[in-house]
Amino acid sequence: xxxxxxxxxxxxxxxxxIGRAHALLFAAEGARVVVNDLGKARDGSGDSSTMAEQVVAxxxxxxxxxxxxxxxxxxxxxxxxVVKLAVEHFGALDIMLSNAGILRDKTLLKMTDxxxxxxxxxxxxxxxxxxxxxxxxxxxxxxxxRIITTSSVSGLLGNFGQANYAAAKAGIYGFTxxxxxxxxxxxxxxxxxxxxxxxxxxxxxxxxxxxxxADRMLAPEHVAAAALFLASDEAAHISGEVLGVxxxxxxxxxxxxxxxxxxxxxxxxxDELAARWPEISGAAPDTDSRK
Length: 291
Prior knowledge:
Elements: E1 8-12, H1 17-28, E2 32-36, H2 50-61, E3 66-69, H3 76-90, E4 95-97, H4 113-141, E5 145-150, H5 153-157, H6 163-183, E6 188-196, H7 206-209, H8 214-217, H9 220-231, E7 242-246, E8 249-253, H10 270-275, H11 277-280
Parallel strand pairs: 1-2, 1-4, 2-3, 4-5, 5-6, 6-7
Antiparallel strand pairs: 7-8
């Protein structure tokens, strides 16, 4: 207990599911928490203050400190508003965890521009804006900090019917890697989570409904524990990583490339590329004698 004692954390999309688990655990570990959520439906429609307020009430009932935020993090004023609220209520911001998201799943040929734009705006643009606002504050304050983004297996490996969501989450991977490089000089780490958990966002997906004991095995609390680690002093030396969490299983996603191959002559031909594709793709041993 108390790993985040004295810290201030802002968590977007914290009204339910994984975000709520983050907020409750961070508060239990001593953090003062800004609980950001618009209370929208899974597809981003509607809005309500109830979800954020309920989580704040849970934290306060347990003896913690929290304040609700209803800012729209897909807009610059909203993202900056989250940071401003943390500073106004608690004096600073030490941890920014971007978790807000919506789903508008549709196969590529059935997807509309509105579906695409809405998902990109909340996930990718929202992560960019919150990270930028938090990093600006952390740089000015000069005491370092932790920034945690949320990617997804859909973005890293792809998933049928989620081109918009996958594009946003893949973008967050690249964004996280670059932001980590740029934030290092300020003593700020930037890492990402790629969670699989049973929430209202995923409860009707086949992989969830088919898993025995999914409520326990894929509980959001598994993801929150990984987030707590990344937010803690124990992870001060870790940055630019994407931590996969699938229930109790934790691993790191890495971008990899196969061993480079060279052509038999001065340049590749289509025929040679086709013939040696198993080598190039890593499916067969290398036969390049010039290496």
